[in-house]
Batch of 4 targets.
Target 1
Amino acid sequence: METVNIMEKTRIDKLRAIAFDNGHHPNNGVELEYLTAKAYLETGTEQFHNLRRAKIDCAIFDNYNIEVTPGELLAGRFSHDTALTAEQEELRRKGSEAIKNGGVMSGYAQASTGHRVLDYEKLLNKGAKSILAQIEEKLSAIDYSKTDDAEKALFYQSSKISLEGLCRFACRFHDQLLTLADRESDSVQKAEYLRMAKNFEKAPYEPCTGFYEALQIVWFCQFSLNLLADTSLAGRADNYLYPFYKSDIEKGLLTPDEAYELIVNFYCKQNEIYDTWPGSLMVGGVDRQNRPVWNELSEMFINAIETTGLINPSVSVAYTKDMPPHLLDTCVDIISKGYTKPSIFNDRIVRKGLEDAGVNTIDAREYIHSTCVEITPIACSNIQVATPYINPTKALEYVLGRGRPLFGEACGLSKDIIISEDDFEDFDSFYTTVKNVMAEIIRKAMIDDCYYALQRKRYHSSPLSSALINDCIELGMDAGAGGAKYNFIYPCFPGYVTLVDSMAAIKTAVFDEKKLTLNELAGLCATNFKDEERMRLYLVNRCAKFGNDDDSADAIGKDFYDFLRTELTKYRHCLGKTATFHPSYFAWIQHGRLGKIAAATPNGRKQGEALSENLGASQGMDRNSPLGVVRSISKLDQSYGIGGIATNFRFSQSFAASAEGKRALVEFIKYFMDQDCFEIQFNVVDQAVLLDAKANPEKYATLMVRVAGYSDYFTNLAPEIQDEIILRTEHNAI
């Protein structure tokens, strides 16, 4: 394909500039906050939360100012031109305060999880009218002699109100674009406005008929939902858009270059509303009929990463054995230039994990990494991710401190556990006690999660999204109340490897080599190794570390990994039939936040430093090459990890950019997948660049890095996260 760099640089630069300006405009939230507050105050007599939410949705759709930036080809951005009067400002203040004071019982509360993908295939191919007809059919069948039907009727009414509001919003876009075209004197811009208006002539009420129209409607839905505080992801765009692309190409209505320009526009728009929130898009894998999805659009969506050079969308690849070799080469070429994307997921392992969790075979074929690495079945799920973040090192701290924290607050337990002041007889008894404490930490967190799910079921709603998530209409139930097919909750364990390395250090230093006692080690952790740098370096350098193919550490890693999964299987929440919990091993930015409030740890980590952020070696501890990391983590059944597993590798620019380095990276990715590992992501940036970027951030505004599942600009990150990335091993070979 010849789609890379086909666009003029001036055009690309203009689109990038529009994305930055629109995304960071100081007036972005002004009108939206006012309309939301006004609608909230005006719907105060509505008795049912989902109907109130639907009416607020429509108030936004019917009144939001539609603005289009000249030069962009996809409509839908935050309004900038609204200036509130003193009276409107007072109303905004009162309404916003009322929403805040009302809390989850206000009727405003969204059931969005930020990790859902709508059924775009249905919307694009059948139109909203078919969904509205389905809702009408369900409404007409309501039988008030049945105990649940009144509640179902409320759901259907709310979804109908919101979906009709969305269609009216589209009509307003159509009319506004015609008005802009009528006022425009520049013939090129006038023609672009008219082309954009045509996309809204019938859709989304009617089915889409072409690629441009379909892509616009996808963006229109994402933008519209964002106005409702309901984040929706793009999903498998190369799959559901390809029939429109193929048809237009065959009819001579579209060229590959034109399609690519639209995709670049689409990427730029993602950065306007999501900013650093990773809006996910996945390519490749298979479709619902188990047919490989590797097509021209797959390649365009990958190439657009380099063309735009922006942090959004968060593009990933669902790797299969039949991935075209040239496409994997393209991925590595882009990664080698420091773009941090795409991340690459092992389709076979992810699908196995989903099926083991109860997802049917067809649904398991179409999933996405929802933002970071969390797995979401497309068009049929209401996943809660990172709920909550649990720091396992607090269990170790509890035992070392004999029930007292070594730093900060104590960990939350479902019941107190008495820890004897006597030394433990052996490592196994100590380790068992740590696991017992961890089990109580998990129990407390899962009890909280169960009440959280119940709260969402009773008081949150998302009537618009629910119309486009299966099986909400069939069940007559909001997605947030259990109407979605799959309602997994994914607790996340930042610091898992920190805990494993700490246990390995305790086994060696305390029980095997008897360098110090447990009480002495607890004292070192409590005082942050003050005046004990020699012992700290012993713990860092002389004790086994996970991620180096060392069975003494890896055995602990496997046991604790299996233990966490087993503990989560003991619990269920109230949302739907798939109300189960599944672990995740990434961190977003929480490894930094949790590290700030955790004591120093027996692996030699100092208080305040970030915890481990991924399933791999702790920062700087992968001493046995990247292959050693893979051999360690491959001892774990990673299909358990549908909550999300991130495995980070960092390579030097000189190695990754060389022909030899690129070939090695391609083979390394294949090896990683063959070893049944879950996901791989890369940083290609030299140590000197990172150090200079920390010292001189003004010179590196666009330097991208992989954090702990997602990409961000290095200068956006908190100092402890910057330091954590700098500490990661920079490999110069595989």
Note: The longest strand covers residues 314-319.
Target 2
Amino acid sequence: MSSFCLILILVTSLAYGDAINLTGASVHVAIHSPGSVVETAIRVLVEEVDKRTGLKWPKVSALPEPASVIVLDLDSDMAAESYSLTTREARVTITGADGRGLLYGVGHFLRTMQWKPGTVYFPRTNTGACAPAYPIRGHQLGYRFQANCYDTWDDVQYEQYIRELALFGCNSIENIPLEDLRKSPHMPLDRRTMNRRLSEVCHKYGLDYWVWTPAVFDLSDREKRAEHLAEHKQLYKDCPELTGVFFPGGDPGANPPELVLPFIEELAGHLRRHHPKAKVWLSLQWFNEKQCDDIYAWIDRERPDWFGGLVAGPGSPPAPETRARLTDAYPIRLYPDITHTVRCQYPVPWWDSAFSLTLGRECINPRPVFYAFIHNYFAPFTEGFITYSDGINDDVNKAVWSRLGWDPACNVRSILVEYVRFFFSANYAETIADGILALEKNWEGPLAGNGSVDGTLVLWQRLEQSLPELAENWRWQTLLVRAYYDAYTRQRLLYETSLEEEANLLLAAAKDTGAGEAMDAAFAVLNRAETEKRAPELRERIVALYDDLFHSIGLKSSVEKYQASGYERGCSLDFLDYPLNNRWFLEDEFKRIRALPEEAAQVRELEKLAAWTNPGPGSFYDDIGHPGKSPHVKRLENLNADPVTVLNYSPGFWWWDNGFSRKRLSWQDTLDYPMTMVYNGLDPEAVYVLRMTGNGDAHIRADGYALTQSITEKNIGEIKEFPIPKALTADRQLTLVWDAEEQSELNWRDYATAAEVWLLKNRRE
């Protein structure tokens, strides 16, 4: 990594101070380059200023002394892609090393100018020179049905979005031209046409155009292999610009290296006939250790000149490990997942299940502080990144990565201030930036105890009232709906938790009231979540905002309403009212219990349900994957130490029945092994039994002593029990360690996990 960036910026609010008034400015172009990226940069400057201010800056052939003017120039002696900004009297000069550099200089100007309708000022102190730290800075914008919005876009919308990414420092766009053959009901252009148009747009803006092309069939099938090669050849011929072809080793695809390597070599031959400088890149996703070793050996032996390098993405060896193994002759490119929150590369650590069950895997997810850390931790091992994105839900994250790819020393809040100033308002830039940071904080810790979620909504409601002109701005809508959704979910959580507590009291009294009456009364209480909904005004606003988002940017937040490709793909609206207590589980249990022939048996089952999480004095219960209900779990939460380890030992959230599982909530958030739990203040005279639910086997050591199971079950919801030798608790303390299981040959869905743990005080001796 080599970088130089010295820009002095003292811009915070609309206190203009020592600034150049550019309200009546003109644009002077010191070079003549028709039909080039320079012409694109000029047009972008004029058009984007007009959109925000209504000012229509004319282009002039001579410098208008002494009137205010923006001068655009080139200096080939500067480093590639770099730019400088200088000010003198009433003049601002933007100089680029090349067309790209000029475009990035225009982006800097637009992000930092002070503006309001009819007015533009530019601070004299906002000057200096800047070159990018990393040569690859891009985002994947695949035109396919699976995306949560891209398939609804025409080429005009695509161009605008690509333009905006470029203005934040992006230089690469990656399309998905061939994968996901399902027919989208939304696509305004056929895929071949859009594939070509995206290449043309990248050429127009001087950006690199990449394609992500997995082989989702068996490469030993000669007929399918030939058909797929023909698709590639047609694609290469269609594209005026093509920089790189990224072939993922897996996710999707399951071909071994002995089939993959000859195939990508053949791809490279066809690619270079149409694009001589283009290269083929490979990820090690889903390859096992031996397969990775074979690929490294092949690279060391063959050193192919058509090979671009390795891509480090989800399910592949981490970038530090890859860099240590890969010869320095080839670079590494990151492929970070910035679009997902659970069941992904970078899950939200210890996310409250109330969010995972409702917002879901592909929700609107501004995580600027988290992703800034992830970028700066892994980027030094690489030549840059092209992120994995499946929609606009991660738009803030794209801006953060784009800016950090240019300058990793950028302050996160400063990036957000620029984001807000460019897309929303210069006058409210600081406040809105803090509002975005507050949305990220909403997801920290147990939701029930996070009262700041309600304060965040109040802030966004005040901004909403102050800035009605932003009502149709899709980026504004994404942030608003998150503020409303988070607060609505918290209010529902508190309400529905209290309903379950009330229902449990009724079940506990079944011996006195009768089992049938107890179940009827408990059902009526639980059903108030439907008949007496909490905060209906918040719900109504959320529904309206998601509808606005579908019409403003094509965000498909529902399968039924907006024809999304699947419930896991951005469909937060479909889970808006998912139960945040065990109402569905209890309803199903009531049906089972009513079928029992004996009243006494029914009462016993109801008492068991009532005491599920409250095992009595001296005993303990942990919902292992819940941040607010697992006080005895020893956590790894210091991301700065090792983000890979910390994220690997955060809870996972299961996806059953298309997200509409009726299982107990505590079974849906689990922790993998190894796992440690610590207890203090135990009764030295008591005998304890460890009880747990979870998936698979469990090998547990108590203070180093291997426990023996007395009840052995392996399925979610079934009970395992381990008696604790009394001598181990004589010191009033107990440390339990679940050893890691050998699972290298298992699908991750079959891994051993812990869902719940009870330490039950049985009796005194």
Note: The chain has three domains: 4-131, 136-430, 615-765.
Target 3
Amino acid sequence: MQSRLSLSQELLNSAKERLLGQDPPAEGVVLARNISLESYQKFCEAEKNLPVKIRLVNGEIIAYELPLGPHGTAAFHVGALMNKWCNQITGTAEEDIKVAPNSYFTADMTFRPRRLPTPPANQACNSLGWPYPTMVLEVGYSESIRSLHRWAPFYMSQRTMIMIYLAIKIYRSNTMVAMLYQRTSRTPNRPTIVISFGTRPIHNRVVNFLLNAGVPDTNIIGVGRHGAPPCNTSNMALYQLHIPAAEILHRTPSILPSVNFDLDLWEIQDRVLNP
């Protein structure tokens, strides 16, 4: 029988300092290995208000993010814009999701149509018995873009019913990048579109990472790319991230809006820079 999981305050504070550093580890800080899903779930239920955000990834507990203002502001405002578009969607902050047999994530925000049928217990996304969301949002501030990209195969796995994974990376330099992953794509683990929307251009090393991940050059657009204009006001066509209504409201065609969800990325930039 596995002993009760414990993470010392010293270990957690050390991970926090590393994530706050000038060069934080690209894939987070490993805090423990060979941890069962049951032990991790019990730990999460007992331990609240940790100084770092953690997740279980193939039996490893990884500290990957800090609960700082820009991170929470961006996640909340995406949820607010989603609700403004369609009030028949339930947005949930910090929802636990089982994404693989020994992997358990706490998503920044999830979205699902209201009144989805309750699934069989072995097909629920967590211990509450809820159905899987149709869309997941992760925001990285301390977390690297490499780490955000790493989660796509988990969210798009055959176990889940997630149709859309949206990852937003906010850099301390005020560069901002949105990556949209879609289950309907032939390559769901690769962004279908990447939009740079901050006040500073996307860095060449980030572009090279995305190109090496298989994203076509023409699909990396926005500030710093192909002579794009600055993202400096609302309703600019280039900075509308188009998300199909049929994917957000998958399994509930009766409440399908007549228009898709266009996420105005300038709205996110403005909220982060001018809270």
Note: The chain has a mean pLDDT of 94.
Target 4
Amino acid sequence: MLNLLLFLIGLAIFLLGLCILKSGMNFLKSKSLKRIINQFTYTPFLGLVTGTILTAFLQSSSALTVITIGLVDTGLIRLTQALGIVLGTNIGTTITGQILAFNLENWSVPLLIGGLLIFVAKKKYRYISINIIGLSVIFIGMSFMSQAFLFIKNSSLFYYFLNLATKSKFIAIVFGIIATALIQSSGAMTGIILVLAKNHQLDLVTATAVIMGSNVGTCITAILASIGSTANGKRVAASHVLLNILGVLIFYPFIEEFTELMTFTSTNLPRQIAHTHTVFNIVSSLAVLPFINLFAKFLTWLVPEKN
């Protein structure tokens, strides 16, 4: 019951931060800023590159997805530009498999303090401080939700389901979806997988299936961020879910052949897992990139404008 209460508090804080961030985004709707953003996301490919770099820097695909929903909500970028960024976040997030030390949520309180100081001290930059405050509140909310389910990672139930996952690729994918959605961090899930692999508790096929599921599970943040957003905001969230599900459907029939191929990339199992995650996400994103305009039309049909 206490964990459920903590999760609900975290969700409320997350949604509050989202509202603050969106209000800050409205202040940024200047022609000069729109021109700068358009320069880096003018084409879907540029959006993909920008999304990859920013996610690698932030170490949080969820954070950049939330920001992207805010940008498309306020009309700073078009839907096709946002889709390019989303494809990039999937590639950039694989850096977590290589570098797990950086935790963005640890910066939530310093960000909040910094944002408040700028808000009080510099009226000229108040619109920037609102965005910083909103982003920090979002991270605090995510941290609360993560703490609510922290016991999962250390529970016998977690390892029971993990044992089931080793017996079926489908169960492994479902396990990855549920565990990541609860933990609220694909990076944390990747870290757990690598630790288990180091201790010889996971093979490459199972680890790959769990990571595929983890890609889908991390979309819960985008879904939450789209609550109360415009149709385009909801389309971005839907794209995140559909793109990751599509990647799983493409690779699932060939998962054993794919992992067999990836064994040639390294003799070290954790490194093989990290490389597999990277290749899987790169191929999934690049496969969709040429059809992004068609995909945008499909999303427009799927999520129509409100009357």
Note: The CA atoms of residues 75 and 125 lie 21 Å apart.
